[in-house]
Structures are given as structure tokens and as C-alpha cells.
Amino acid sequence: MTRGRTRCGAQTPIIVLSGACTFQRPGVYKDRKPLLQPPKPGSLCELSGNPGQARQVTEGKLGMRITLRGFEIFKGRLDAPAQRALIAALRPVLQAAPLVSPQTPYGKAMSVRMTSAGAVGWYSDRKGYRYMPQHPQGTAWPDIPQPVLDIWDDVTGLERRPDCCLVNYYGEGARMGLHQDKDEADFSWPVVSVSLGDDGLFRIGNRTPGGSTESIWLTSGDVVVMGGEARLAYHGLDRIRFKSSRLLSKGGRLNLTLRVTS
Ligand code: SIN
Ligand code: FE2
Questions:
Q1: Which residue owns the Cα nearest ligand 1 atom 2?
Q2: Which end of the chain is more exposed for a tag (fewer CB within 10 A), N or C?
Q3: What are phi and psi of 75, to 5 degrees?
Q4: Which of the residue ranges 31-35, 44-48, 124-128, 214-218 would you say has the lowest mean pLDDT?
Q5: What is the model's pLDDT at position 56?
Q6: In the chain, alpha helices (H)
Q7: pLDDT digits over 135-192, tens only?
Q8: Is 176 in the pocket of ligand 1 (CB under 6 A)?
Q9: Cα–Cα nearest to 162, from 151, 149, 150
Q10: Ligand 1, atom 3: nearest CA belongs to which residue?
Q11: CA 206/CA 120 separation, integer angstroms
Q12: Domains in the chain, please, with CATH?
């Protein structure tokens, strides 16, 4: 598997943090100006963890964007009606491809329940982490709903579209340990993540195991682009604030990650 190659040529780099390469449509951010103050503690953009790391907050056509170690976090990118529309679009996906509890290759049940939409879906069991052409129940994965693809188009501007939308559901107490997304064939494509429902404490590490980490609360409607230097960075979800949002009637957090796998 190739590692760490980036495809920066076709896009316009817009941030100058540790040589970050971003995947934004050229010209979209011309009007961005840095905010004078970082977000207030307790605000939507509340940050926790190790202060003093490179981060940048900008305001532009796609709303407020925080850049943290190359992760581009679009706070509140989806308003409440857009979040509800997304949930409605995901309902048939969850009916056709029910959530399952994958096991790690070491036989440990994951606390997050998962399913996918797209040509392939991500799955894990004793055989290892991989993309599969079918749901474990033996049916094709449903198509990625159009409103989900629209988000990818908005934040990446890329012509190629994802072939997998992994749907993670975090119920009370669920978490995801630090990991790299590295089951894809070509890491030059970004991964785009969409948060819906309860708040989740997202932790960002480095491209190698260990070292310092930083965390940020992701709230419903936030969209994160993991490209360039962030593409192979360790990340995970420490915990959720169960029932902090009313988007899902039973509580919990849905996270979509859009990937180009081949
Ligand atoms: C993931 O890394 O697959 C999920 C991240 C998240 O839940 O925000
Ligand atoms: Fe991930």
C-alpha cells in the first residue's frame, strides 16, 4: 500500500500551516479573513487538550473553519433543516443495510455500530479491516444519498466522488480509539466526515503512533475534511455527550465518513 503521497497540484492551497495541502475549489475562499479571537471556551468551537498547537480560525462562504493539524473543521456547516434532511435521506440506507457491530481482528467487539452506502462498505472481523462489496447479510450496499454527495462536492470541489460512505452510530458510552484511515488504495483523496446528533469529543494525533494530541468537540452539522497532512493522521472519538442533541429521537451520534477507496 502506498503511504503519504499527496496530490496537491490540482487544488489551491489555502492555509499555510505546516505546509498543509487542502482540497478546496480554487477561488472559493478569496473573501476569507482571519478572526481576531479564537473561539470562546464553551462555544460551539470549544477546544480542549494541548493548547498552543497550530490552529487557525477563518470565516468565509462555507462558514467558520477551524484548521487543526491539517484537519479542516467546518463548524455548523449544515443548519438544522439540512441535518434533518440528511437524517431522512439516511433512513432508507439504515433500513436496507442495518447497523452491525464489527469485531476488531483481535476479536474485540467495537462499541460503535456501523453500516455503509456506496459501491463498497467498510467492515471488520477476525479476517481484518477491509472494504466489502456487500453488507454482511449478503445484499448490495444502498447508494450514497444525493445530499451526502452534495456535502462532498461543497467542501472538496473534486470531480471524483466517494465510493463509500461509512455510517458510524455511537450510542451511549460508545467510542472509537485512535486509528489511521488506511484501508484505501490512494491516500491523495481526502476523507470527509459529517457529524450528526450528539456532541462527540474528537481527538487528533500525529502521523505516527504516540506524541501529543489535541481534541475538539464536534457538534451536529460539523463537517471535517481530512486531506493532505491530515489524511494519515491518527484520530479517534473519545466519548459522546449522550442526548446533548435532539436530532435523533433515541439520542446518540451518527458520523458519516466519505472515502474514495480504489
Ligand atoms: C472515524 O474516524 O471513522 C470516525 C470519526 C468520528 O466519529 O468523528
Ligand atoms: Fe477514521
A1: 236
A2: N
A3: -70, 130
A4: 31-35
A5: 85
A6: 80-96, 146-156
A7: 999 999 999 999 999 999 999 999 999 999 999 999 999 999 999 999 999 999 999 9
A8: yes
A9: 149
A10: 257
A11: 28
A12: 48-259 (2.60.120.590)
- In a 3-state reduction of DSSP, which class is residue 191? strand
* Contact residues for 247 (Cβ-Cβ < 8 A; gap 6+): 83, 84, 87, 196, 197, 220
The band of 55, judged by pLDDT with boundaries at 50, 70 and 90, is confident
- Give the ligand with the smallest distance to the CA of 73: 1
Does the beta carbon of 219 lie inside 6 Å of ligand 1?
no
pLDDT higher than threshold 80 for residue 236: yes
Q: Using only C-alpha atoms, what is the Rg of the chain?
A: 17
Residue of 122, 176, 202, 217 with the most ligand 1 atoms within 8 Å of its CB, for mutation: 176
Cα separation, 157 vs 54, in Å, equals: 25
How high is the pLDDT of residue 128?
92
Three-state secondary-structure class, residue 84:
helix
Residue indicated by cell numbers 446528533: 197
- Identify whether the C-beta of residue 39 lies closer than 8 Å to the C-beta of residue 51: no
Alpha-carbon gap, residue 60 to 88, rounded angstroms = 28
Residue 109, Cβ neighbours under 10 Å: how many? 10
* pLDDT band at 61; cut points 50, 70, 90: confident
Q: To 10 degrees, what angle do helices 80-96 and 146-156 make?
A: 130
Ion ligand 2: residues, CB within 5 A, are 181
